[in-house]
Amino acid sequence: MEKLTEVISKISEVVWGIPLIVLILFVGVLLTIRLKGLQITKLGKSIKYSVMNEEGGVGEVSSFGALCISLSATIGTGSIVGVATAIKTGGPGALFWMIVAAILGMATKYAEGFLAIRYRHIREDGTTIGGPFAYIEYGMGKKWKWLAKTFSIFAMIAGVMGIGTLTQISGITSSIENVFLTSTSKTINIFGNDISLIAIIAGLVVTICTALVIIGGIKRIESVCIVIVPVMAISYVLICILLLICNIKTIPSAFSEIIKCAFNTKAITGGFTGTLLVVIQVGIARGIFSNESGLGSVPIASSTAKTKDPVRQGLVAMTSTFYTIIICIMTGLAIVVTKTWLPETGNEGVIITTKAFEQGLPFPEIVSACLLMISMVFFAFTTIVGWNVYGVRCLEYFTNYNKIFTIIYKWLWVLAVFIGPYLSIKIIWTTADIFNAFMAIPNLIALIFLSGRVSKETDIYFKEGLKALKLEEQSDDSMC
After folding, report:
1. Which of 167, 223, 428, 467 is the most exposed place for a label (fewest CB within 10 A)?
2. Is 425 exposed, middle or buried (0-12, 13-18, 19+ CB in 10 A)?
């Protein structure tokens, strides 16, 4: 197992090396320039659109429902465990680079949402063909279909073997164990590992709930996400705000530490010995994991929205990164002000955030831990069901809507959730990072290729309106 972990870690270091980091940042900067800082200048409008459904649109779910599905997939363990592991590995400065990645990623997410509607196809049964595989094939041309297929393969694997299942169920069981596990808790030896009965029961419950939701399809997933996501996101932010208020005197020093450590690792306390490259690498990798900008997942949900306006949906899509980074900032500040990330504490993963809640909130430790556990369970569960939409849509595209393969894939998804608690946490997170990188590359290539069309048609829309944009769409040539 140690050798396997070492091999996977080396692969992750290669794929998340300087080339991919440069590519992600390049795409974000390119789109920010071409869209004239739209993520800042149009932020107010995008937030307004995000809570207002468009009338007369065509699609499978409401615009708000599509946003909730995308948020369900992004506001998961990445916002709680991912932030904790980033700060643990890269120091407080990693949070700064997560924010940088998010700001640039908002322009990337706008382009993804725009292209998702611009190049989607609606089948006779009302289902949509949309996402990176669609805008690669229909936007870049048939000769690039191999790249669309490549994306769909990696996305299917990433969902069922990493970001959509294993990391989420691992986060759920770890947070529940952290609250309820005692020295007298019963354990069972499975695959050579002693697994607590608490983790086994929690895993079984989540597995059953997952099966009940995803077998019902996108409508049932929407109905679950549209209720859980807004309530839990707002509740979590309010809890973090309370924590920060209770520790308000340490906030200025926390901000100072974050900024200093983002550019000078010698300023980091607690015996951290990582290089500046590690800080940037970890911050960006975890930033992409949490907000998924450039990954190519969110445009699959965006393509299902009931809308006829690609610009509007692009603006709505970019708010998913905005909302996600707010939660990441809240988590990161809670960890930095309470210093639960320091090496001498011995804290790892979700325990870092749990200890931050226990130390920072004015409640008994068990109450604070339960608050985080509840947030973690709901965030991670909605990610499991939300990411299933992505995996299924990629499979449908790849197999030309073969229903048998779709059913098999959904049950493999359930199986992955079932076995997740019994796997190594380090292997799970590292594997998820690898497949995230593999699926991001085809999508980033497409965004570079189609960035000219995105910027031109966005300019037309804001100058002349949707009708002018529709006339422009009659031309199918792709512009770089």
Report:
1. 467
2. middle
> What Cα–Cα distance (Å) separates residue 372 from each residue in 376, 378, 398?
6, 10, 38
Instruction: Quote the longest CA-to-CA distance of the chain.
Output: 70
- pLDDT at 340 exceeding the cut of 90: yes
Q: Whole-angstrom Cα distance, residue 324 to residue 67?
A: 12
For the chain, give the mean pLDDT. 85
pTM: 0.87
Cα–Cα distance measured from residue 419 to residue 73, given in angstroms and rounded to the nearest whole number: 20
Q: What is the mean pLDDT of residues 409-419?
A: 93
Q: What is the bridge-based pairing of β-strands 128-129 and 121-122? A: antiparallel
- DSSP per position, 115-182: HHHHT-EE-TTS-EE-SHHHIIIIII-GGGHHHHHHHHHHHHHHHHHTTTTHHHHHHHHHHHHHHH--
**Listed range (183-197, 206-220, 237-251, 429-443) with the worst mean pLDDT:** 183-197
Confidence at residue 274, expressed as pLDDT on a 0 to 100 scale:
54
**Contacting residues for 79 by C-beta, under 8 A, at least 6 apart:** 290, 324, 327, 328, 331, 379
For residues 171 and 162, give the distance between their C-alpha atoms in angstroms, rounded to a whole number. Answer: 12
Alpha helices in 400-465 (DSSP H): 403-419, 425-464
Instruction: Say which amino acid occupies 183.
Output: S
Nearest alpha-carbon partner for 327 in 29, 27, 81, 52: 81
Contact by Cβ (8 Å): 233, 50:
no
For residues 404 and 199, is the Cβ–Cβ distance under 8 A? Answer: no
Per residue in 66-117, pLDDT tens? 888 888 877 777 788 788 888 888 889 889 988 988 999 999 999 999 999 9
Locus of tokens 């659109």: 49
Annotate 119-148 with b (16+ C-beta within 10 A) or e (fewer): bbeeeeeebbbbbbbbbbbbbbeeebeebb
Nearest CA to 443 out of 329, 307, 250, 293 is that of 293
Q: Three-state DSSP class for 35?
A: coil
Sequence-separated (6 or more) residues with CB below 8 Å from residue 256: none
Q: Which residue has the higher pLDDT, 367 or 22?
A: 367
**Secondary structure class of 478 (helix, strand, coil):** coil
Span 264-306, pLDDT tens digits: 755 454 444 456 777 777 787 777 767 888 888 889 989 999 8
Find out whether 442 and 135 touch, Cβ atoms under 8 Å. no
Measured distance CA(298)–CA(479) in Å, rounded: 23
The DSSP secondary structure of 36-77, one letter per residue, reads TSHHHHTHHHHHHHHTSPPTT--SSB-HHHHHHHHHHHHSSH
Looking at the predicted structure, is the pLDDT value of residue 231 above 70?
yes
